[in-house]
Each structure stands twice: as structure tokens, then as C-alpha cells.
Amino acid sequence: MIYADNAATTKLAGEAFEAMRPFLLEEYANPSQPYSFSRPAKKALAEARATISACIGAAPEEIFFTSGGTESDNWALKGSAMVNGAQGTIITTAFEHHAVLHSCAALEQSGRHIAYLTPTEEGYITPQHLQEKLGADTFLVSVMLANNELGTIQPIKELCALTHSKGALFHTDAVQAIGHVPVDVHDLGVDLLAASAHKFNGPKGIGFLYRRKGTKLLPFADGGAQEAGMRAGTENVAAIVGMAAALKANHEAMRENAQHVAALEQKLVALLDAAGIAYRRNGGAKKLPGLLSLSFPGADGEAILHRLDLRGICVSTGSACNSKSTEISHVLKAINLQESYARGTIRISLGKDNSEEDVTIIAQELKKIFKG
Ligand code: PLP
């Protein structure tokens, strides 16, 4: 099997599994209890918070553990809308993940106005785009750090500075970026940031929300005093510990991993070019290393996915078939990709465990599909 869908999820790091093991077996105490059996779990939570905060330049008390990217995005948007903008406007983009888009749709139903920025055809939101939409009633701007289908990295620092100059808050969905490219919350200036462990070789169903100290936010869940009273519920200690171990490992090897996947990406592109296959690459130059959005004109992305699957290769598509038609993804629609290209789009997302042999086989199989 060749796994080339690392933007969908990643393999659990060995370090993460080993770090989790004691908290699944022996150290099962509830971290909130006062007796000494709870001490290792309590200490592990504090250490995980410190490790994670150090990786993104935050303070430990600015990190709140959640069940993943979807929850972090929902919390950031709905939690700040509840306390900051009774009737105001949220500005977001047309190519956000559904965790953001559907949260915005829910807020729209409860009276908030949502304005959508359209990315350039290369997949970027520019400060000029934002400038045009920012108004006196804007209380929140939400722009993803890296797009999950294109890999394009947005100019968050500039967008955030512009947003703050109008007195609004800035949230970024950094789910695809954390653990893969450097992210420093102070350098970026963001108020809220969402992350998910399974995108950086941590376990599934765990993530975090960064909230800049002093940023008003409604608690996600009411109940016990966990997470400083902001998200009640007994913590998933093992998953939190695994998330911290995975982030630390990826953070330490970030440059090396990025160079490795970028080299694989270059090799794959060179092999496709040498094979004379007609295709276009979507997205511009400033992007996540290893993520390729490729459109084969006149082809069917879903059919390519299944052909590759038959050969044991996992990739994703930019369109999804139902029984009657092929639905083009909202991201490809947002960058205004011509329909014949959009329908024939696949996403190959390489990870640190992929090899030169993997990309050689992927290129050979694509050649067989397109050139026979
Ligand atoms: N945001 C982005 C950009 C994503 O790519 C994903 C997952 O695909 C999510 C949010 C949702 O994260 P999770 O799967 O942890 O809920």
C-alpha cells in the first residue's frame, strides 16, 4: 500500500503511541482527583500543554484541548460570535473547510451577517480582498492558514494586522499547517487558532484551540472545571499526551521532513512531465510542501482515485460522485477552475514516511491510466 493522502490523516508516530500507552493502561486516574494516583495524569496534562504551547510560541494557559479541528473551529467562531458580535459581520473565505463554512452558516441563521472573500485563481486571499470587505460592524475575520485541497499558505500576518487595525478579532484554521510549517502565534498576531493532532501524526479525535490571553470567548461546554472552566469534561489524557509527543517530534524534524517531501514532490512532477501526461497544477508557489492538486483535463477524478486504489495507492479527489452527477469541490469552484479540469482533479499529499519508490510507482500508475 502507498499512502499518499496525508492531508486527510497521518500515521500515528511511534513516539506518540509510546507516550500514550501508560495512560491507557496503568495511569488511568482521573486527573482532577486530589489523591496521589492522579498526580501522573495531572502532570502529563500540564507537560503536554507546555510542550504544545512552546511549539507555537504561546503561553500554556492559552492552549485549550478539544476533540479536534472541527470542534476548535466551531468553538472559535460560535464562541466569539456569542460574546463579541450580537448582530455584526464575520468575514471568512469561500474556500474554508466545512468546519468553518458550516459554523458560519449556522451563525447566519441566528442573525449574524457573513461576508465571503473569493480567493485568487492561484488560491490566495490578498489584503486588498479583505480591505474591501472590512467594515465598522466586522467583529471577526476567519481565514485558514493553509488550504486543505490546494496547500496554499495565506498571508495571515498581513490579514491579521489589517483586521486588528479595524478593531476586529482574527481566527485562523491552522489544521493543515501545524507540525508541517513554522507557526508562531505572536509573529502572526492571531487571536484564535485551531489545530488537530491527526494531521501531524498524533491520534484522532484530539486537537486544541489557541486563544490569545484576554480574547473574549464563550465556554465550549459547561460542567466541570476542566480547561479553566472553558471546556468541561474529563480530559482524554492519553490522546493529549500523544498529541504533544507527535507535535514535538514533528516540530524537531520539521525542516528535514519539509525538504524530504518537497524533493519527492519535485520528483513526481518531473516524472509526470517526462511521461508526457497532460495536466495542470493548482495553487501557487507559496504552499505546503508535499501537497499536489493535479487536474487532468477531460478525466474523472473519482475514476482516477479508484484506478489507483486498485493498485494500492491512496489519494483524494477534488470532486465527489453521487449516483447522478459529479459534484465539484467548493474549493475548486472558489478558484474558478474550468469544469473539465475540476472534474479530473486529484490531491496527492505526501508525508514524511513516503519514499522515492512511492512517487515513482504513483507516476508509473498515472502513466498507465493516461497513456495506456
Ligand atoms: N480544517 C481543515 C483545514 C481540515 O483539513 C480539517 C480536516 O480535514 C478540519 C478542519 C477538521 O479537522 P478534524 O478532522 O480534526 O475535525
Characterise this structure.
With 372 residues, the protein is of the alpha/beta class. It has 2 domains: 2-9 and 254-371, Aspartate Aminotransferase, domain 1 (Alpha-Beta Complex); 14-252, Aspartate Aminotransferase, domain 2, CATH 3.40.640. The chain is 40% helix and 16% strand. It has 13 helices and 15 strands. It has helices at 14-24, 39-56, 69-84, 98-109, 127-133, 156-165, 185-188, 237-252, 254-274, 301-310, 330-334, 339-342, 356-371, and strands at 2-3, 63-66, 89-93, 113-117, 138-142, 169-173, 192-196, 207-211, 280-282, 291-295, 313-314, 316-317, 319-321, 326-328, 345-349. The strands form 4 sheets. The chain has a 7-stranded mixed sheet with strand order 2-8-7-6-5-3-4, with helices on both faces. Strands 9-10-15-12 form a 4-stranded antiparallel sheet, covered by helices on one side. A two-stranded parallel sheet has the order 1-11. Strand 6 (169-173), helix 7 and strand 7 form a beta-alpha-beta unit. The longest helix has 21 residues, at 254-274. It is globular, with a radius of gyration of 21 Å. The two termini are 22 Å apart. The model has no long low-confidence stretch (mean pLDDT 96). Residues 68-70, 73, 97, 99, 144, 148, 173, 175-176, 196, 207 line the site of pyridoxal-5'-phosphate.
Question: How many helices?
Answer: 13
Q: How far do the termini sit from each other? A: 22 Å
CATH class descriptor name of the largest domain: Alpha Beta
Bound molecules: pyridoxal-5'-phosphate
Rounded radius of gyration (Å): 21 Å
> What would you say the CATH architecture of the largest domain is?
3-Layer(aba) Sandwich
Instruction: Give the mean pLDDT.
Output: 96
- Uncertain segments are none
- How many domains, in number, for the residues? 2
Task: Describe the largest sheet.
Answer: 7 strands, mixed
